[in-house]
Amino acid sequence: MEDQKIQEARETMDVKHLCKVLYEISTLLNTGLDRETLSLCLNLCENGVNPEALAAVIKELRRESASMKLSETNPAVTASGSNGNTGGGGSTTASLSGG
């Protein structure tokens, strides 16, 4: 019983250390992901989400967010006109499971 608790404590420490290291790498690579978002991305990948598709979705969401912010400050710019995308975002989202 005691050995099981010790093993669980070690695993918890290992996971926390791994998360810290991944966050440091993420910061060095200027991903702009906070700890919570990085953790969510890691969980998605562990559950079978294609990492490249996930990255593409995150980039698209950032583009859309920037476009929306730009259109709020400059109403003459539209969301569809600022990034050249004519609506292909659904196919990226559909490919997240890699299948």
From TrEMBL:
One cellular-component annotation, GO: interphase microtubule organizing center
Gly residues bias: start-end ranges: 84-99
Domain of life: Eukaryota
Keywords: Cytoplasm, Cytoskeleton
Region (Disordered): 67-99
GO biological process terms, semicolon-separated: gamma-tubulin complex localization; microtubule nucleation by interphase microtubule organizing center; mitotic spindle assembly
Residue ranges, compositional bias (Polar residues): 68-77
Locations listed in the record: Cytoplasm, Cytoskeleton, Microtubule organizing center
Protein family (similarity comment): Belongs to the MOZART1 family.
Role: Required for gamma-tubulin complex recruitment to the microtubule organizing center (MTOC).
Record protein name field: Mitotic-spindle organizing protein 1
